[in-house]
């Protein structure tokens, strides 16, 4: 369906600042794909992870949450032959992937005059939230779940589960 930058998506997760006391209350955040998963993103641990970038006012606490994309009604799509289908079609939601983190930026701490407080700006910095989350693509999750290692773990788990009955 030619999903790409600008297409709508949503993430279902927990807003840790108001997660519910009596019930687990999920929150839904809405946004759009801001970059396709063409080039890996370097994680803090040094691993390069193929990732979509999603603009959804990201904040900490959504890691592990599913991200879905969809085509709302009235969206004109190129590559669709029938003009009526171009106008009326609605597709999805589809699993885009799972949030693994957010992309932050760093800025030097400044004094009242707007000058860095330290001659080496890298030593006195504050993290800035860009609002962009990094999302492991659904196909990478499928590869992992279908890997030999994961299949073996499932088999061992099932055998142990059967033994308990």
Report what the structure shows:
The chain contains three helices and eight strands. With 165 residues, the chain is α+β, with helices and mostly antiparallel strands. The strands form two sheets. Strands 1-2-5-8-7-6 form a six-stranded antiparallel beta barrel. The relative contact order is 0.18. The model has no long low-confidence stretch (mean pLDDT 83).
Summarize this, please?
By secondary structure, the protein is of the alpha+beta class. The chain contains three helices and eight strands.
What secondary-structure arrangement, pairings included, does this model have?
Elements: E1 8-13, E2 27-35, E3 41-42, E4 48-49, E5 52-55, E6 66-71, H1 83-88, E7 91-108, E8 125-137, H2 138-145, H3 148-163
Instruction: Determine the strand fraction and express it as a percent band.
Output: 35-45%
Shape by Cα distribution? extended
Question: What is the rounded Rg?
Answer: 21 Å
* Helix/strand class: alpha+beta
Number of strands: 8
Roughly what is the average pLDDT, rounded to an integer? Answer: 83
Order of helices and strands: EEEEEEHEEHH
Helix percentage range: 10-25%
Keywords:
165 residues; 18% helix; alpha+beta; two-stranded antiparallel sheet; six-stranded antiparallel barrel
